[in-house]
Write a structure and sequence with these properties.
Number of strands: 23
Strand content: 15-25%
CATH class of the largest domain: Alpha Beta
Helix content: 25-40%
Structural class: alpha+beta
Number of helices: 21
C-alpha cells in the first residue's frame, strides 16, 4: 500500500547552488574530524613539512590548519572554492593512478558551504599573500595578505547554518578523541612531516620531524605517537613480491588488546580502514590469538598505483584492488610468516626440527623426542625426580628426618651449563600436574604442558597435511562409534577433511560410524572419545580461530584433545623433550587457542621478592 502524499507534488527543478553544496557537504563533512582530515591531506599533497592543527570546542568553534607547503596563487583562491576544482588530476588517465591523498575537489567548497570559512595562502617568492572569506557558501572578493609561504585555513562555527546536522555532533570529548585518532593515523603515515595538535591551550600531540640523517624515521614516529611499549612487544615485518611490498610492525600475540584501537594500515601513504586488508591480517593471526582479543599493528603497503582504485569510497577509506585475492593472500602470508617466529625468546632462525647437536633427552625418552610424539607413550613416574640416583627424591623424603646437607650438595653437580643456556632451560619439576618448572641461566621458566604439547602436535600435523603425507594407521579391527544422526551427517559432509587428516570413515547406520584407519600419531588414543569430542567441537564452532578450512579446524581439535592432560606424570627426560620441541616449533609461544604456553621469572624479580641486595 502506497503511503499517502503529504502534499501536492512539486514540479521538477534544478536545486539552487547553495543547497547543492550543502547536500554534497553531507558526504564529505560528517563531523569536525572530517574537516581536519581533508585539510591535513591537502597540506600533505602540497608538500608540507610542518603542519599545525588548532581546535576549539571540539572543532565546532574553530579548526585551524597551518602548513608550510607550496601555497596557492592569489589568482586561484576563488577557483579553489569551486566544486570539483583541483590541481591533482586533469584526465581519466590521472584518475587511474592517483598518488595524492585528495583529488575530487569537493572538500574546500563543502567546508565553505557549512561554516564561516577563511583561507590565507602565499607562494614562495611572492611579495605578498592573499586571502578569501566565505560564509555559508557566499564568497567575498580575494584580498591581499601579509607575505607567507604555505596555507592557513580557518573553519569557524561548523554547521551553524544546518541546525539538523549540528544536532548530531557529539560531545567535545568525543569529537576531540576522533580528531586525535585521525591525526595519529596521518602522523604515522608520514613520519617525515612534523605534526602538532592543540585543543585550546592543551597540546594533544607533538610529533617532530626526524633529525637529518635519521636511519629509521618510522620507528621514531611510532614511539612518539604510540609509545615505546608498542615496538617493545611487536615484531618487525618486511616482505615484497612483484609490484607489492609491506613493511612495519605487528604486535606479538601476547600483547593483544581488548579493543581494536591499535590497528593502522596505510596503502601508498594513505591511511585506510579497508576490510580486505583487515581480514588478511586477522587471518595471519589465526590460532595464535586468544578469542575476543585484537592485535595491534602498523603496516605500510606499497603497490603500483595503477593496481588500486582509491575512488571507491566518498572518504577514500576503502580501496578496490585490481587483484584483490593476490593482495589479500600476500598480506596474510607475510603476517603468518612473521608470527611463525613466535617461539620461546623469539627464535626466528631456529629450524622446525630438533637440533641434532642438542643434548639427548635421556634413556626412555626417544618416543617423545620424535615427530610421532604422543601423550599415550609418557610413562608415569615420580612428579619430581632429580637426574642422579643419589640425589634427594622429594617424593620419598621422610619429613621426620633432619635436613640432609649431603643430599643437597649432590644436586649441585646436575646443572648442565649447556642445557641451562637453552631458551627454556633445564626441567626441574612438574607442579600440580599442570606446569613444568625449568631453570635457565638467568631465572625460572613455567610451561603449561598441555598448551605447549597442543601447539607442538598441531604444527606437526599441519606440516604433514600440507606435505600430503599425513601418516595413517589401519586398525586391526574396525571400530564402531555411536553418534547422533545429525552428527554422522556432519562428519560425512566433511569426509574429505577427515580423510586428509588420516581417518577412514563410513556410515554403518543412521546413528553409527565405522572407523577403519586413524592418524598414526593417535593410534593409541581412545579413538571413539576423541572422535566424539572433535565432532562436538566442530559443531559448536570451537576452533573458529582457524580460518583456513575445515581440515585445519579438525587438526586443531585433534591436537587439543590428544595433547597430554593435567595430572599426567612426566619424567624429567620427557619434560626436557617437551621444552626442546617447543624451542623448535613455530608459534610455540601460544597454544592453538591463543593462550600463552610459557612464562619467565627472572632472577631480578626473584631478588626483589626476597629483598636481596637491599
Amino acid at each position: 500500500m502506497r503511503p499517502a502524499a503529504s502534499g501536492p507534488c512539486m514540479p521538477i527543478r534544478i536545486l539552487p547552488d547553495e543547497l547543492v553544496d550543502q547536500i554534497a557537504a553531507g558526504e564529505v563533512i560528517e563531523r569536525p574530524a572530517s574537516v581536519v582530515k581533508e585539510l591535513v591531506e591537502n597540506s600533505l599533497d602540497a608538500g608540507a613539512r610542518r603542519i599545525q592543527i588548532d581546535v576549539e570546542q571540539g572543532g565546532i568553534g574553530l579548526i585551524r590548519v597551518r602548513d608550510d607547503g607550496s601555497g596557492i596563487l592569489a589568482s586561484e583562491l576563488a577557483v579553489a572554492l569551486s566544486r570539483h576544482a583541483t590541481s591533482k588530476i586533469s584526465s581519466q588517465d590521472d584518475l587511474a593512478g592517483v598518488v595524492t591523498l585528495g583529488f575530487r575537489g569537493e572538500a574546500l567548497p563543502s567546508m565553505a558551504s557549512v561554516s564561516r570559512f577563511r583561507i590565507i595562502s602565499g607562494v614562495r617568492g611572492d611579495d605578498r599573500g592573499a586571502e578569501i572569506v566565505a560564509e555559508g557558501g557566499t564568497l567575498s572578493p580575494v584580498a591581499p595578505a601579509a607575505p607567507m609561504t604555505g596555507t592557513t585555513v580557518e573553519v569557524r562555527d561548523l554547521f551553524y547554518n544546518i541546525p539538523a546536522r549540528r544536532k548530531f555532533v557529539r560531545s567535545v570529548a568525543t569529537e576531540i578523541g576522533a580528531i586525535l585518532r585521525l591525526v595519529e593515523r596521518l602522523a604515522l603515515a608520514r613520519p617525515e612531516v612534523a605534526f602538532r595538535l592543540r585543543h585550546g591551550e592543551r597540546t594533544l600531540l607533538e610529533a617532530g620531524a626526524p633529525a637529518s640523517g635519521a636511519s629509521d624515521a618510522r620507528a621514531a614516529r611510532i614511539d612518539a605517537v604510540l609509545g615505546r611499549e608498542f615496538r617493545e612487544h611487536a615484531l618487525p615485518l618486511a616482505q615484497a613480491a612483484g609490484p607489492i611490498a609491506v613493511s612495519g610492525w605487528i604486535g606479538a600475540p601476547t600483547a593483544a588488546r581488548a579493543r581494536a584501537d591499535l590497528q593502522f594500515c596505510f596503502v601508498n601513504g594513505r591511511p585506510v580502514r579497508d576490510r580486505l586488508l583487515m581480514n588478511a591480517v586477522r587471518l595471519g593471526y589465526r590460532d595464535v590469538l586468544y578469542h575476543g582479543r585484537h592485535p595491534g599493528y602498523v603496516l605500510d603497503l606499497a603497490i603500483d598505483p595503477t593496481l588500486v582504485d582509491v575512488n571507491a569510497h566518498p572518504q577514500k577509506l576503502e580501496l578496490r584492488f585490481r587483484d584483490s585475492r593476490q593482495v589479500h593472500d600476500f598480506l596474510f602470508r607475510a603476517v603468518e610468516r612473521a608470527l611463525a617466529a613466535t617461539r620461546p625468546l623469539g627464535l626466528a632462525s631456529a629450524a622446525a626440527v630438533p637440533d641434532p647437536d642438542a643434548p639427548g633427552p635421556g634413556p626412555g625418552a626417544s618416543a617423545v623426542a620424535g615427530a610421532d610424539w604422543n601423550a599415550s607413550r609418557f610413562e608415569s613416574r615420580l612428579v619430581v625426580m632429580p637426574r642422579r640416583a643419589d640425589s634427594l627424591r622429594v617424593a620419598e623424603a621422610d619429613p621426620r628426618a633432619g635436613f640432609d646437607w649431603r643430599a643437597l650438595r649432590s644436586t649441585e653437580s646436575v646443572l648442565d651449563p649447556e642445557l641451562a643456556e637453552r631458551p627454556l632451560g633445564r626441567a626441574l619439576a612438574q607442579l600440580h600436574g599442570i606446569y613444568v618448572l625449568a631453570e635457565t641461566s638467568d631465572g625460572l621458566i613455567l610451561v603449561d604442558m598441555h598448551a605447549a604439547h597442543e601447539r607442538v602436535l598441531y604444527e606437526q600435523m599441519k606440516r604433514s597435511l600440507d606435505a600430503g603425507s599425513m601418516p595413517s594407521q589401519r586398525l586391526l579391527a574396525p571400530l564402531s562409534v555411536a553418534l547422533r544422526p545429525h552428527e554422522v551427517d556432519h562428519v560425512l559432509e566433511h569426509q574429505a577433511e577427515w580423510e586428509a587428516a588420516g581417518f577412514e570413515l563410513e556410515r554403518l547406520s543412521p546413528s553409527e560410524l565405522v572407523v577403519r584407519s586413524v592418524p598414526a600419531a593417535l593410534a593409541r588414543e581412545d579413538i571413539a572419545a576423541l572422535l566424539r569430542a572433535a565432532v562436538e567441537d566442530m559443531e559448536n564452532g570451537d576452533g573458529r580461530h582457524h580460518l583456513d578450512g575445515a581440515a585445519h579446524r579438525l587438526l586443531g581439535t585433534l591436537a587439543c584433545r590428544s595433547a597430554i592432560r593435567a595430572h599426567r606424570s612426566l619424567s624429567l627426560a620427557e619434560m626436557d623433550a617437551l621444552l626442546r620441541q617447543m624451542e623448535a616449533t613455530d608459534r610455540a609461544d601460544q597454544c592453538n587457542h591463543g593462550r600463552p604456553t610459557w612464562a619467565r621469572i627472572g632472577l631480578a624479580e626473584l631478588d626483589r621478592l626476597f629483598l636481596r641486595g637491599r
